[in-house]
Write a structure and sequence with these properties.
Elements (H helix, E strand, L loop, with lengths): L16 H8 L4 H7 L4 H7 L2 H6 L1 E5 L4 H13 L6 E5 L8 H15 L4 E5 L4 E4 L2 H5 L19 H13 L5 E5 L20 E7 L17 E7 L14 E6 L4 H11 L5 E6 L7 H4 L10 E5 L2 E2 L15 E5 L2 E2 L7 H4 L5 E5 L2 E4 L3 E4 L6 H6 L4 E5 L2
Parallel strand pairs: 1-2, 3-5, 5-6, 6-7, 7-8, 8-9, 9-10, 10-12, 11-13, 12-14, 13-15, 14-17
Antiparallel strand pairs: 2-4, 3-4, 15-16
Helix pairs in contact: 5-6, 6-8
Length: 385
């Protein structure tokens, strides 16, 4: 008679490292610290570099005053780095002194070891070191800008943004995602960030144009505005800016370009993407002579006829032209050599070309060969990304 071998039941410690990490992700701050005391393996997992980088600390601002004070004490004694912190709070709730103290510690926990800060206003989420990843692709419309519409009680979010500007004054990179605020004063405290070099803002819809730009960030070199109205870029006065990217929902291209030219003229790289398909390239090209230092220009989401360059000033010193998601009547732009005599690189990125029989088709590699033969000094590239 054979005796069946007895297998002891599997326990939680038989789970692999990745599964235990998923389990620990559900624990709030106090419980994750308790879990670290259960056994040596849990302690090693929770304090491992891999788990620390993925751990999202959840901080509820809806607790009682006593509970908030206890949380402050825990944060003060914490010896671990947090890369991502989620703040749970009722929308529209005021930022009391107790809550502000929590926010202050949260900001300091991240900014003490990171110069880059990501603030998602829809999710109330703070993260570090993501701005470079978000900007790695130049196609602004592909950056995650989910249309989350928030109720009108925005006082807490604006106060939290103010707390970031006051308690993380040494930030060099700041990304504000899913802003969904139309208050023109919401961003004024950004002027406190004297070391800021890179700023990305998505979903900002100010309802009026200020009499003078209220936001002056003296060290800013890179400014990116995604899913914004025409008035949004008028809020910034930046003399040191080297690169400006804007993805606007506006339908008046001339107005948009005038707003940019009024405040920002020293940029060497300018990217302008439009959501409205009714805009044609001439409305933008006629303003490029207002940017004397411009060497790279990126244009997205517009229609480009054969004579689109007729509005360009021949003195323009543009060296690189990038067309993203544009509808081209032809690849042979009239007077390209004369109008852009300094041009060295022409890039077609996800553009459509009109064919008499097939209509608009995506530009293919073979379409570019005649262009290369016509302008041998010009580097003509095709980007499928």
């Amino acid at each position: 008679m054979e005796v069946a071998e007895f297998s002891p039941p599997l326990g939680i410690n038989d789970m692999p490292f990745e599964i235990l990490c998923d389990v620990f992700d559900y624990l709030p701050l106090m419980d994750i610290k308790t879990a670290a005391l259960v056994c040596r393996r849990w302690n090693q997992i929770i304090f491992s570099e891999l788990y620390i980088k993925r751990f999202k600390m959840v901080v509820s601002l809806n607790e009682s005053l006593l509970r908030l004070k206890q949380m402050v004490q825990i944060l003060e004694k914490s010896d671990r780095d947090y890369y991502s912190i989620i703040l749970k709070v009722n929308l529209g709730s005021p930022l009391t002194e107790a809550r502000l103290k929590i926010v202050k510690y949260v900001v300091r926990l991240i900014s003490e070891y990171a110069e880059s800060l990501y603030f998602n206003m829809a999710d109330l989420r703070l993260e570090s070191c993501v701005s470079e990843r978000l900007l790695r692709s130049r196609k602004l419309q592909l950056i995650d800008t989910r249309a989350k519409y928030i109720p009108l009680g925005m006082g807490l979010k604006e106060s939290m943004l103010g707390a970031i500007c006051e308690y993380a004054t040494d930030l060099t990179d700041l990304v504000i995602s899913d802003m969904n605020i139309n208050n023109p004063k919401a961003l004024e405290k950004l002027s406190l960030l004297g070391q800021l070099k890179l700023l990305l803002i998505s979903d900002y819809y100010p309802y009026t144009k200020p009499t003078a730009p209220p936001i002056n960030v003296p060290s800013l070199e890179n400014l990116t505005l995604i899913n914004v109205t025409d008035e949004s870029n008028f809020y910034f006065k930046v003399d040191s800016l080297k690169r400006l990217f804007i993805h606007t929902t506006g339908t008046d291209a001339t107005r948009s370009m005038q707003f940019i030219a009024n405040n920002i003229t020293n940029v060497s790289r300018l990217g302008v993407h439009f959501s409205a398909r009714t805009i044609v390239a001439q409305q933008i090209f006629e303003h490029l002579d207002k940017f004397p230092n411009l060497s790279t220009f990126e244009l997205g989401g517009v229609a480009i006829p054969a004579d689109a360059l007729q509005e360009l000033n021949p003195s323009n010193r543009l060296q690189k032209l990038i067309l993203v998601g544009c509808q081209l009547e032809t690849l042979f732009l009239t007077d390209l050599n004369q109008k852009l005599h300094c041009l060295r690189q022409l890039v077609f990125d996800s553009c459509l070309l009109f064919h008499r029989l097939q209509g608009f088709q995506r530009v293919q590699y073979d379409d570019l060969e005649p262009v290369r033969r016509s302008w041998p000094h010009l580097q003509v590239l095709l980007d499928y990304n």
